[in-house]
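Mods, move this if it's the wrong board.
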Amino acid sequence: MRGHEAAGARPAWPASMPAERLTSRERQVMDCVASGLTDRGVAAQLGLSHNTVKFHLKNVYAKFGVAQRAKAIEKHVGAGLREQP
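Not the wrong board. Structure tokens:
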């Protein structure tokens, strides 16, 4: 095993693949975020806890290789993942 696998860390996703790696729930969360909702607003909209929303966003940020909400939105919208209302 490589060092990061042994420690239980997630491997970095290739830059060309993060869009395909989002779960359907992560896409729903990002759709809400891209619409301008706060984490608490996303939680209310999707019937989730605030902590669950934060968990999904943490995973999305890791998959997109970003550390900021605006960059995650940019990648999500730019990849054509946002579902139209």
